[in-house]
Amino acid sequence: MLGVAGINLDEDRSFSARRGGGQQDGGDWGNNNRWDNRTDNNARGKYPQETTKENWTVPLPANQGWRICCTNCRELFGSGNTGINSDKELFGTGNTGINFDKYEDIPVEATGENCPKNIETFEDCSLGEIIRNNITLSRYSKPTPVQKYAIPIVLNKRDLMACAQTGSGKTAAFLVPVLNRVYENGPEESANVAQSRQYGRRKQYPLALVLAPTRELAYQIYDEARKFAYRSRVRPCVVYGGADIGAQMRDLDRGCHLLVATPGRLVDMLERGKIGLEHCKFLCLDEADRMLDMGFEPQIRRIVEKDNMPPSGVRQTLMFSATFPKEIQMLARDFLDNYIFLAVGRVGSTSENITQKVVWVEEMEKRSFLLDLLNAAAGPDSLTLVFVETKKGADSLEDFLIREGYPATSIHGDRSQKEREEALRLFRSGDRPIIVATAVAARGLDIQNVRHVVNFDLPSDIEEYVHRIGRTGRVGNLGLATSFFNEKNKNIVRDLMDLLVEAHQEVPSWLESMAYEARPAGGSRRGGGRRFGNSGFGSRDYRQQTKPKQQQQQQQGGAGGGYNSNFNNPMANQYGQYSNYGGSYGGAYSGGGNNAAPDWWGN
């Protein structure tokens, strides 16, 4: 595993110190045949030079691949370990999904000109030897729905706009074909690269760039990239805010072919002259909606439009998101060229891998109710993720759980990167199987064995709810999502009702009453249940919406008109009747999650 050079291991074994890099001081550049046809510039501490004579499609020998991967393993595993003994250290013991067969029923819709044919197995497409070997090592038995469509689209050099939820296998859906194409194309040699070497400026010109909204997601993508780059000459790097920029720059100095970055830190690196985008042939925006929610649109537009990145049509651009509001579709219109729109059905809606429960709980009773849920945990290996709205609330709830004897930790934006990574490590390992989190952990975190997501505080919008419950039931696993609801959450009642009905979930009668009374005359405020329509897809390609609006609503309308107008029980009685809801949460999992997204262009 690659590490950052120049880090004092006695002072910092934090997340940022382990993130990745090349040769550590005291290593052996002379025996590291990572770059063939080396020149004198390849001596220790010099810029490693690639040449166009290399054949990047040929995997390096296994022992040599591990030498490249392990020269800095001391950073990750301590000074007493000089290397990795087996593939397990990099690839783990197996893939996270256990119910892949249930994914076969998830609908997928690809629209656009001359859509490439989807695949059914990884052998159906022309992947090179390096990628095929690493897919096997990753124990991917079959592609997920998004991979079946996205991989051939990218291999056919088409731009892609994909509506797919985190946990659907979308990271491999873009890394596998992008890295395969990088191997086929080989290294980039140009006057810019030669000039940077001539004057000793260690400026990197990555061939592929992946933008992600958070440092956690950026690292996870980087971690996957290392797996698919194993035994290749391609060197992934990651840069993100909240970590030592000096260490990240030293890491970049050792070479970077695929860069994973958060927008803010990448802009910083561009301004410092450490990164050049002139040769970036592949651009991927992951969790694009989240990046816009966090206010990164100016940085994204600056990176794509003002830093000499090859234009649309020359570079290949991929956008992935769980939701596609108007702003995202406008970004796609500006960045993508003749793209394929891929709508992946809401993960879990047909596979029944997420059970959603909504319970009425007064504010003062939330802590007591949470303890009841934790006592009914599915098993010793099951992890519980509890979402709260505020940082203060996260700290307070963690302290309460610890006082009550529950092994808990917490994560939020005020924690240092080292503290955040330590909390995630304790959670993943099961040492602290309960983690209290704010929205910082709502997107992108890929944590195995999360069996229960608890919305201690419901979010104010349904999109955030969709992303939160997506932390469980990932890649075919079973999961449960429980949400505490009371008067403070009335603003979300209509959308929550639409989602539950569309996903065939159990709906409390009191929630039906509230949703019906809150619904304006004429149906849903989103246009006849448009957001959670009957289509089974998270979003629609706005380019296909050429039919009259009335006909569109008839085709795409959903749960908006399906409510019984004869509710006559007072809501107070309904609440009282439902206040005893609880019982066992270890029953059968039925129903599903949701990956819905609005398409505003037809409104």
From TrEMBL:
UniProt cross-references to SUPFAM superfamilies, sorted A to Z: P-loop containing nucleoside triphosphate hydrolases
Sequence motif Q motif, residues: 120-148
Domain Helicase C-terminal, first and last residues per copy: 353-515
Similarity field: Belongs to the DEAD box helicase family. DDX3/DED1 subfamily.
Record protein name field: RNA helicase
Keywords: ATP-binding, Helicase, Hydrolase, Nucleotide-binding, RNA-binding
Keyword Hydrolase: yes
PROSITE patterns for the chain: HELICASE_ATP_BIND_1, HELICASE_CTER, Q_MOTIF
Enzyme Commission designation: 3.6.4.13
Reaction(s) this enzyme catalyzes, per UniProt: ATP + H2O = ADP + phosphate + H(+)
Keyword Hydrolase annotated: yes
Residue ranges of domain Helicase ATP-binding in the record: 151-342
Entries under Gene3D superfamilies matching the protein: P-loop containing nucleotide triphosphate hydrolases
UniProt GO molecular function: ATP binding; hydrolase activity; RNA binding; RNA helicase activity
Region Disordered: start-end pairs: 14-51, 519-568
Domain DEAD-box RNA helicase Q per the UniProt entry, residue ranges: 120-148
Gly residues: bias regions: 19-29
